[in-house]
Design brief:
It is a single chain. The protein contains 2 helices and 40 strands. Strand 32 and strand 33 form a beta hairpin. By secondary structure, it is mainly β. The chain is about 5% helix and about 50% strand.
Length: about 500
């Protein structure tokens, strides 16, 4: 039972990871077209042009006197759905200010959260920002004030040498959000050292560099300076090609799934094959690396395993793929089935065969979706989107042909508002009222991602997009105090 429930949870995360990887590639390749899109046929695909890059700019100053802050670090974190689950799939962009405190950064269109840090000054974040194609957005200014607790350290390689230009990112552990949170970031100097100031609390600290595998530690900041050092291991790389087993021809637009015992990410959609079927992977951990590919009309029947040494570069790997199928359909509003729902992530999983099939893109403006490269199996579909209650449970069986006209209905859910007594800051969450089993594990997946915060002064909170059922609202505070109350949700908001 625990294994089945774990599979459901992992699939939700994998669906989000796959989608984020597509947007991450847009960020890195605004000048190159390396994305793929699928047509209705599982045997064909079309290339879509890149979106025109946008530009963000602003200034960082000191709050008391307005003096410019040179060498401040501005972080630009993705804030689309799922960014909180897998930050490694959409790494934060960082840039630094010049002598006048000015900064400028080209980016791909999307939704972002910006933050600024500087030695001796408290970090500051701006409200979520939606950036359109080709937009030139200026005036994104920060005024930083002194204070906070020092977090410092050194990043070295396994030989003891300093790593310059490593990115250090701090995230507040308690600030859960489906659509991301501010990243307080800085870069290491030539001697591998870094420092920044933060408010007290629990944080996860991430260290990353393009030539090395990533590392992460958890810390508690409580008014005293804290040292967090990292030793990074050189990352390996793999170059290869995806070809059809039956014809030997290259397969374009195939997404590469990377898994390994020492990998610290799901590795979903780590690369996509070009028109000649070529792909390249970077920053890989050592060990046995399993590579699978799925694209229009084709998918791996079994993984291609590559033994990779520390920092090793392997070339000439071939991933052979076999004929596969397509699942397509539409996501609609449950109350108005003529209305398609856009921006929904779609995936399917087979508990029996442990196969996962994922849409490369979220649903379009009409709610249409397409999952390509699907191997034969019985799949349970999951649909997940911001502002909607997730749907898990629609089943389809792929045997020897494409599955078309699948309809998935999503509901908005209701809201629960209330307060914590005595008034104080608290994390508000939901769980099922009763035991979890086969009969309600999908219902569990619908409620575990509903979160809110209680206001520190009033204790007021509001949970959004809550599914119907018998639930328990829980509250947990930083000092360990906790409370709960049962609720029964129908079709009306609950206060």
């Amino acid at each position: 039972m625990k294994r089945v429930i774990a599979v459901v949870a992992v699939v939700l995360v994998v669906i989000i990871a796959w989608w984020l990887r597509a947007h991450h590639r847009d960020t890195k390749q605004t000048a190159h077209d390396q994305d793929s899109a699928q047509q209705s046929s599982g045997d064909s695909h079309a290339r879509k042009g890149p979106q025109a890059p946008a530009t963000l700019s602003g200034r960082v100053t000191r709050k008391p006197d307005g003096a410019p802050v040179a060498n401040a670090t501005v972080s630009i974190a993705r804030a689309e759905l799922g960014a909180e689950f897998l930050p490694s799939q959409a790494p934060t962009l960082v840039t630094q200010t010049d002598a006048s405190g000015q900064w400028r950064q080209p980016i791909a269109p999307g939704t972002y959260i910006l933050a600024a840090t500087a030695p001796g000054l408290l970090p500051e974040a701006l409200p979520k920002l939606v950036v359109g194609e080709g937009e030139q957005r200026g005036g994104l200014d920060f005024a930083l004030e002194a204070g906070g607790t020092l977090v410092k350290g050194t990043v070295t390689d396994v030989g003891g040498g300093p790593i310059a230009g490593a990115r250090i990112t701090l995230k507040r552990s308690e600030d859960f959000s489906l659509t991301g949170q501010p990243d307080f970031a800085t870069l290491t100097g030539q001697d591998g050292t870094y420092q920044l100031q933060v408010r007290d609390g629990d944080y996860s600290v991430h260290a990353a560099h393009d030539d090395y595998t990533k590392a992460q530690k958890s810390i508690e900041v409580k008014g005293k300076p804290i040292t967090v050092d990292f030793t990074l291991v050189p990352g390996g790389s793999i170059k290869g090609r995806v070809i059809a087993r039956e014809s030997g021809k290259p397969v374009a637009g195939a997404w590469i799934d990377v898994r390994g015992k020492r990998s610290n990410s799901f590795g979903v959609g780590e690369a996509v094959s070009d028109d000649e079927g070529n792909f390249q992977l970077h920053s890989l951990a050592s060990g046995a690396i399993s590579l699978s590919a799925a694209g229009p009309g084709y998918a791996s029947s079994s993984p291609t395993v590559v033994e990779l040494g520390v920092g090793e570069q392997v070339d000439g790997i071939t991933i052979k793929v076999d004929h596969a199928y397509t699942i397509s359909g539409k996501v609609v509003d449950k109350r108005d089935k003529t209305k398609g729902v856009p921006a929904i992530l779609i995936g399917g999983f087979s508990i029996a065969s442990q196969q996962v099939a994922l849409a490369h893109e979220p649903t379009d403006k009409d709610g249409r979706f397409e999952i390509v490269g699907v191997r034969p199996a019985a799949y349970t579909l999951a649909a997940f989107g911001e502002g909607k209650v997730p749907d898990i449970g629609k089943t389809v069986e792929v045997v020897d042909k494409d599955i078309k006209d699948v309809v998935i209905e999503l509901e908005t859910g209701v809201s629960i508002s209330g307060r914590v007594e005595p008034p104080q800051a608290a994390q508000i969450a939901l769980r099922l009222d009763g035991e979890i089993g086969l009969a309600n594990m999908f219902q569990m997946a619908k409620v575990v991602m509903v979160r809110a915060k209680a206001d520190p002064q009033t204790g007021a909170f509001k949970l959004e997009h809550v599914p119907a059922g018998k639930l328990v609202v829980t509250a947990d505070t930083e000092d360990g105090a906790a409370g709960k109350t049962p609720v029964e949700i129908a079709e009306a908001d609950l206060a």
